[in-house]
Amino acid sequence: QIAARAETLTKTYGSGDTVVHALRGVTIDFKAGEFTAIMGPSGSGKSTLMHCLAGLDTASSGRVRIGSVDLEGLSDKDMTKLRRDRIGFVFQAFNLVPTLTAEENITLPQGIAGRDVDREWFDTVIGRLGIGDRLAHRPSELSGGQQQRVACARALVGKPDIIFGDEPTGNLDSRSSGEVLDILRAATDEFGQTVVIVTHDPRAAAYADRVVFLADGQLVRELRQPTADDVF
Ligand code: ADP
Ligand code: ADP
């Protein structure tokens, strides 16, 4: 079963002399329940690919499917609903609401979607991410690493079909990185969620089922069951 698919995706920014080909025909499947890490040099198109997959950006040509839904035909309203119901996104810049506490941030998407929070899973996520004693704090009272883990918890708590993460361990020390990668692994193993992250962290390879490498807007390599040594 395919959770997401990009088909001959291209993305061009600008035009004329300043044109940038961020994606040059990327075709890739993400199987349901798999954990994929996307790696590659800065500027290779990783963020663009993930933003197109998550419906946060539109490709110049090609197709994106989430499950059986082709994003091209969707109205803004249906796109919003699909993102809300089926996709969790961990942004590089966290995107937490500054006036809300950590707990309110984490449960906000559920409230917006009119869904009850699964308290048992909430407690599991919070416990494993080690932020149980930070729930009443606002983002400004949290370290970067704690904000990062709150952002991860927010993406995980609704058990979306797919979780996308833009360098979800980018601001974390090695212990916190391990906790984030552990919980993403648990999301796939225990709930069959699909995880796709962009990362520069070689340790992520040990948690992922597969690492794909982008260079200059193209897929250049794919490793299955990688180890950290494979990507150093
Ligand atoms: P990565 O995530 O691998 O660092 P990006 O997807 O962010 O790569 O960027 C791919 C290329 O597209 C880079 O050359 C980058 O400068 C360019 N790019 C990304 N976003 C924009 C944008 N909004 N406007 C113009 N160029 C962009
Ligand atoms: P990353 O660490 O993911 O590669 P970037 O610094 O490439 O991050 O991009 C961060 C944000 O800036 C993205 O939303 C991307 O679309 C935008 N961006 C990247 N390159 C450019 C650019 N040359 N011009 C305008 N926006 C850009």
Automatic annotation (TrEMBL):
Pfam hit, one: ABC_tran
| Name under which the protein is recorded | ABC transporter ATP-binding protein
Cell division among keywords: no
Instruction: Name the UniProt key words of this record, in alphabetical order.
Output: ATP-binding, Nucleotide-binding, Transport
- The ABC transporter domain, residue ranges: 4-232
Q: Which organism is it from?
A: Gordonia liuliyuniae
Q: Name one GO molecular function term.
A: ATP binding
**Origin: domain of life:** Bacteria
